[in-house]
Amino acid sequence: MDEAFVGTELKYLVNIESEGFSMVDDIFEIILKRGSVVMTFTKDDLVFRDGNYYLCFDSEPFGAGTVSAVARAYVPDSDFHDGKRTEVLRVDLVKLRTP
């Protein structure tokens, strides 16, 4: 887990892998949480450069504490009624400290 000071603008490479899933072709979102503060980023909210997606955000609204990231990917799968299987992964992304 990374550490940073509150107010730092952060940038993370997003890499979601699952058999049959393509970050370019399929739908996914990243949800950042700390306490009652929640920010949701769709694929369109991310920076796409050189074939990679980057999550860029200002840490100021989160305040001090651990920010978790929840990735939700919609994997094509014909065995499900809507043709998609939802996969969810949660990681503690960054511990923010007061400067």
Kindly describe this structure.
With 99 residues, the protein is mostly beta strands. The protein has one domain: Sandwich (Immunoglobulin-like), CATH 2.60.40.10. Helices cover 0% and strands 60% of the residues. It has no helices and eight strands. It is elongated.
Overview features:
single chain, mainly beta, Immunoglobulin-like, 3-stranded antiparallel beta sheet, elongated
Summarize the helix and strand pattern as letters: EEEEEEEE
Total strand segments:
8
Q: So, CATH architecture?
A: Sandwich
Fraction of residues in β-strands: over 45%
Give the proportion of residues in helices.
under 10%
| Poorly predicted runs of 5 or more residues | none
Biggest sheet, spatial arrangement of strands:
1-8-7-3-4
Quaternary state, please?
single chain
Mean pLDDT: 97
The general outline is elongated
Structural class: mainly beta
CA(first)-CA(last) distance: 18 Å
**CATH class descriptor name:** Mainly Beta
Could you name the CATH topology? Immunoglobulin-like
Profile the largest sheet: 5 strands, mixed
CATH superfamily descriptor: Immunoglobulins
- Please give the domain count: 1
Radius of gyration: 15 Å
